[in-house]
Amino acid sequence: MAEEYKTSSAENPLNVINVYDLEKEAANVIPAGGYGYISSGAADLYTIQENIKAFNHKLVAPRVLQDIAFPPDVSTTFWGDKLTSPIIMAPVAAHKLANTQGEAATAKGVSRYGTIFTISSFASETYEAQAAQANGQPQWFQLYQSKDDNVTRQMLDVAKKNGAKAIVLTADATVGGYREADKRNGFTFPVGLPIVPYQDGVDQTMDNVYKSAKQALSPRDVAFIKDYSGLPVFVKGVQTAEDTELAIAAGADGIWVSNHGGRQLDGGVASFDALQVVAKANRKRVPIVFDSGVRRGMHVFKALASGADLVAIGRPVIYGLALGGSQGVEAVFKELENELLIAMQLTGSHNIEEVKATNLIDNRFAD
Amino acid sequence: MAEEYKTSSAENPLNVINVYDLEKEAANVIPAGGYGYISSGAADLYTIQENIKAFNHKLVAPRVLQDIAFPPDVSTTFWGDKLTSPIIMAPVAAHKLANTQGEAATAKGVSRYGTIFTISSFASETYEAQAAQANGQPQWFQLYQSKDDNVTRQMLDVAKKNGAKAIVLTADATVGGYREADKRNGFTFPVGLPIVPYQDGVDQTMDNVYKSAKQALSPRDVAFIKDYSGLPVFVKGVQTAEDTELAIAAGADGIWVSNHGGRQLDGGVASFDALQVVAKANRKRVPIVFDSGVRRGMHVFKALASGADLVAIGRPVIYGLALGGSQGVEAVFKELENELLIAMQLTGSHNIEEVKATNLIDNRFAD
Amino acid sequence: MAEEYKTSSAENPLNVINVYDLEKEAANVIPAGGYGYISSGAADLYTIQENIKAFNHKLVAPRVLQDIAFPPDVSTTFWGDKLTSPIIMAPVAAHKLANTQGEAATAKGVSRYGTIFTISSFASETYEAQAAQANGQPQWFQLYQSKDDNVTRQMLDVAKKNGAKAIVLTADATVGGYREADKRNGFTFPVGLPIVPYQDGVDQTMDNVYKSAKQALSPRDVAFIKDYSGLPVFVKGVQTAEDTELAIAAGADGIWVSNHGGRQLDGGVASFDALQVVAKANRKRVPIVFDSGVRRGMHVFKALASGADLVAIGRPVIYGLALGGSQGVEAVFKELENELLIAMQLTGSHNIEEVKATNLIDNRFAD
Amino acid sequence: MAEEYKTSSAENPLNVINVYDLEKEAANVIPAGGYGYISSGAADLYTIQENIKAFNHKLVAPRVLQDIAFPPDVSTTFWGDKLTSPIIMAPVAAHKLANTQGEAATAKGVSRYGTIFTISSFASETYEAQAAQANGQPQWFQLYQSKDDNVTRQMLDVAKKNGAKAIVLTADATVGGYREADKRNGFTFPVGLPIVPYQDGVDQTMDNVYKSAKQALSPRDVAFIKDYSGLPVFVKGVQTAEDTELAIAAGADGIWVSNHGGRQLDGGVASFDALQVVAKANRKRVPIVFDSGVRRGMHVFKALASGADLVAIGRPVIYGLALGGSQGVEAVFKELENELLIAMQLTGSHNIEEVKATNLIDNRFAD
After folding, report:
1. Dihedrals φ, ψ of B156, to 5°?
2. What beta strand segments (E) does A43-132 contain?
3. Do C296 and D43 touch (CB under 8 A)?
4. What positions constitute the catalytic site (chains A, B, C, D) (predicted)?
5. What share of chain D is helix, strand, coil (3-state, %, to 5)?
6. Number of CB pairs, chain B paired with chain D, less than 8 A apart
7. Can you list the alpha helix ranges (DSSP code H) found in chain A?
8. How far apart are CA C52 and CA C271, in angstroms?
9. Which end of chain B is more exposed for a tag (fewer CB within 10 A), N or C?
10. Is A333 exposed, middle or buried (0-12, 13-18, 19+ CB in 10 A)?
């Protein structure tokens, strides 16, 4: 029941040493059910752990005498939008699990930082309340498609009306992953999901929420969404060369490499390892957004050097939200930017284009 | 002594989060000697542990836009028998160690689930009592051959009379593995083994039980069993290309890849790694059953994608039997099926044939 | 504040079993802030840990019947200076954090041992007081260049006047690494840095100290320093083939392979792994000094066999200083020499040239 | 002092589950100094640990239908001597550290088992007392050569007179390894070393004992020993192809692959890995004895399958001696034989020649 769920309502400056600390601290202010839902992954947690460890499958080498005055230029431009850095906000369901202020505070912090905010279909706040915090920054809409095309059209209408600049079709969650923390906690959503007309969310398990959305997604859905919305479409959840081709052939304007934060298929490849495969298959035809496992500025660096154009973060932002509201959100982005700047300076990278051109050192099968 | 051995007699619904939990919980209801016998492996436990870890020597990649309505079709057909799924029951000795209801309850749960039950020569229940629970589902008979061919003929007669559809010749246990838990516990069977005329089992060590069966097995035995029974014969315990050829040349109708659950030869290859070798050598000439280390629906998936036609489980079912009787048995099968269904959906596999055609990602020498 | 910082003032003989012990014991005599500064590394500590583990990426094989009377000859000659062994003192900032006697005691211990002492720009003692302890042994000067060329000239004048035989340009610290221990401790220097005219150091963070030095270093700086000083110049912090070429092309007389003890770029290669790359690129054109991670005589051996001409140690010496003053410093060098002698004897190496000619066994991707 | 050293004087039957257990139990009956000397290894203990782990760098595969009646034939013949099994006794210094009965009890247990006993130069018992226990079984003499050839001749005279059938020249201990346990314990020998005329041993460190023997060994020494003694000579401590050639060229009749139980050179290759290299270089020209790290019958199996003709064990026997005297010694050999028999049966090996012809599965760079 919503009334029994007492989570944080923090709004304060947040001092961040690293985002791992935030994960531990957030466990003290988010109720166990919500925290389990946010933090955990599928089954044996192999893939969720590999998501982070895999960043050391590629190593960087420091470079010297590269004539860089600190700080290098971390800004980037994407589809005409100037961003503070290539670090953007991933779609995450139900921010009110972490902070009573919900997505409005997250959107505000993200805008203040100056990057893209992705609105989740399963947000616990209305679309309008999130859009109201855009403050000139771009917002994208992550779509869980309805079984009923007319309902999907309604959702796209709302997004367009509120200024969404792209649609992100989540294609890797046509059934819920086997998330044992939720089963042990008997977790159901204590908050509503006002954006999706087909599901109110309250007292529902994540499995039921997923089941109420369209499951049998196909290339036709990409074309349908693109045609109806007139917006560029990302296919999110791509991890293979085959699906890269499939998505591009279906008209996708971008590929979003993700394994849903290790929440869906356990025993699957780490997202960073999949990025290498997808980037090679893509041959720079469309932009790539990368997520899953990003906890360090160095992770952002390595993803950019492996073919990503933008790098999305999710859980760390939600922990920042829990601990500091919109200010906590902004602090998380600033922390990762700060770490990225140091990595850029010490690798002799004057700007993001040089980061993307960096050769990493293969360390795949090392101890 | 049988009268001192107080094990579970549970018969109740069983809620399963994962089968690892059951292993821990079963330790509370099965006496230490019986539990040690069931759960442990040979010597340093290297191979028993590798059996599970080895499933991550191959990784899966999620697939998207594959147009699958959940659930995909998990059913399969084997030699004309329609099965709920390719998950079948492996032969396991002396189920009464885990539950006073013994093999009758296991057979009942397996039939209710709708798959193959393999009756062990070293069952603690009569053949007839197990066959009585078949309920239209296929049953196979796992043979520990007698030193005396006439006794072997008697055993095959019983199996045929009671409807066995195949004989599974256990060829990897011509001596007991070096199982230290049994030595530390001073374990002897507290229950009788009514199927084998050459051994009553009571107060015997496993070593003695094995020694009373035929040790010097050869290809001639495969031919002998096949000729006399008129039934298809599996050779169980094959782990090499050489033995694949040997078994097929001897007339085997199927190969059963197994390292006896890591109970026999420590320092040997993981069963899942051996499956890759056997499947390649087999070149689809005969069907392959796989066991040893299966604890997840994803393990079933990976075995099927590596050449197995059926995947047998043993210990998890015995823990389910200890904790819930026939209902516990059924719950274990349903749990693994549920996990397998999620894996199928998220890898875009509409049915078991598509699972078997999946290309896995080599991760053999990774961290 | 300097007056609140109570560190060791030990001056006594030191019995060393191994230098790992010293690291633990030093934690008891150095205040937490200073100890954190000295001992810790960047971010997740991946690279600092790999620095040590990486020595087992190459293994040695014992050799027999090589006709060596113990001890073999561990001495070496570098640019005309006869050294007790190829083990030299790396530049380390602010020795007074560890012992009130500071760099004067370190320099004294190093001279008594009979090897090269490298004076740090960020020493907590005057140049003159360190030079006064040279006692006929060579001293080098590690330069953190000033943003103002005239100030750099002043510093080089002091070094020349006091007999420096080489300049070591630190090129890998144009911004401070992300050192979390310092952030958690709120560490600022409690002692002054009298050598650098552009920064007094007191109550400054390491970040601020680094920022006050020149950040945008380029090949022109190598040429400038070499021309003005007339001394041979090392470029310190080289880890790649590209930078090896760059440094040599800029006129460097030697390459100093280092990742700054894992204090700068986390997620980067281990220094010993980088040494393999640099040595190959160098093709013996210029001498190589190696540091980062050296804790054993065997590490010295492996570095020499991988292309290093000299091997520098830092932290272990500072722990020796904390625990025994100049005598502790000398004891650390003697301990590593002793371990090196055993390694030489058991690998059949009569002298340092034979150590350098040793073929190591690749173990890069082993467990 | 000898009078203060109170060790075990056990003489009783010993039940062995595995020899790792004995190592733990022996720590309770052997004084700390002696136990440290016996059990520990060099420096970081990397190589001593790798010695055991390395056996899983090669895996075995079970074989089926090989027509073997248990038990297979574990006996072997070496240079005309019929042995119960290829497991022999390695030279170990000062058995009286473990049991007041010393080498006499060990020799008795080894003879009763029926295999080769190697008498150490640094035995704590007279040569004659050990020879008296031979009981028809072969004995070999491990030589630490004297700096004085006449003294070496005296030692060889004693060995010949007492029936030694081979001389084992220890070539890998021309200086003591860096054994920290001994340094921490301040260990000196509490017992005398009556065989070596150049060193009485009492109150000496191992370093001093080694130093009193000849250090500058060369191929000439092999020829000298062989010529003078007229006995076949093993060179012990060979780990490389180069030294295999060197030893054979010098006239060695056998190669003894060993890294001295990980006591000498840390950071060196595991002995089992070196065996692969030596066996390849040897091309079956001379017999190979293998030691270092053998704790399981499976280890014996893998060593034989990798080119060894005999496999020597040391520490486990000394623990057996401490816990059960001569009966404990015999029990250790029987335990390893028992484990070896199971491995032979389950891999389809009828005899030792078939074990030696087994193809192992490369697992060098696995997790």
Report:
1. -65, -35
2. 58-59, 76-78, 81-83, 87-89, 117-120
3. yes
4. 260
5. 45, 15, 45
6. 108
7. 19-26, 32-39, 46-53, 102-113, 127-131, 149-161, 180-185, 206-212, 219-229, 241-249, 271-282, 297-304, 315-346, 352-356
8. 9
9. N
10. buried
For residue D268, the one-letter residue type is G
Q: Which residue has the tokens 């080694």?
A: D210
Residue with tokens 């044996």, as numbered in its chain: A44
Domains: count for chain C = 1
Nearest to C64 among D211, D235, D266 (CB): D235
B266-314 pLDDT per residue, tens: 999 999 999 999 999 999 999 999 999 999 999 999 999 999 999 999 9
Distance from the Cα of D349 to chain C's closest Cα (Å) equals 29
Does the pLDDT of residue C365 top 80, yes or no?
Answer: no
Residue D3 is predicted with a pLDDT of 55
Q: What is the DSSP letter of A199?
A: -
Helix segments in C98-216, DSSP class H: 102-113, 127-131, 149-161, 180-185, 206-212
Quote the pTM value. 0.96
pLDDT at residue C336, rounded to an integer = 98
d(CA C167, nearest CA chain A) in Å? 16
The pLDDT of residue A3 is 55
Q: Among candidates C154, C307, C312, which has minimal Cα distance to C228?
A: C154
- Going by pLDDT thresholds of 50, 70 and 90, the confidence category of residue C345 is very high
Give the CATH number of the domain where residue D303 resides: 3.20.20.70
* Residue at A367 is within a domain: no
B20 is in an annotated binding site: no
Could you report the per-residue pLDDT of B137-186, keeping only the tens digit for each? 999 999 999 999 999 999 999 999 999 999 999 999 999 999 999 999 99
- Return binding residues of A for glyoxylate: 37, 144, 179, 260, 263
Alpha-carbon span D66 to B63, nearest angstrom: 44
- Band the pLDDT of D306: cuts 50, 70, 90: very high
Tell me how far apart the alpha carbons of residues A281 and A326 are, in angstroms, rounded to a whole number: 38
Cα of B199 vs its chain's centroid, Å: 22
Question: Which amino acid is it at A273?
Answer: D
Query: Quick one: C317 exposed, middle or buried, by C-beta within 10 A (0-12, 13-18, 19+)?
Result: buried
Is the residue at D12 inside a domain? Answer: no
Q: Could you give phi then psi for residue D251, rounded to 5 degrees?
A: 105, 10
Neighbours of A150 (CB within 10 A): 9
Burial B231-245 (b: 16+ CB within 10 A, else e): bbbbbbbbbbbbbbe
Contact D65 B175 (CB under 8 A): no
Query: B319 is written with which tokens?
Result: 């823990």
ipTM of the complex: 0.96
Pick the closest to residue B326 from B103, B15, B118, B88 (CA basis).
B103
Range of the domain at A108: 19-358
Between CA B359 and CA B362 the distance in angstroms is: 9
SS3 label, residue A267: coil
Residue D10 belongs to a domain: no
- Would you say residue B83 lies in a domain? yes
pLDDT (0 to 100) of residue A2: 45
Q: Which chains touch B (3 or more CB pairs under 8 A)?
A: A, D
Residue in the structure block whose two tokens are 């069963």 = B271
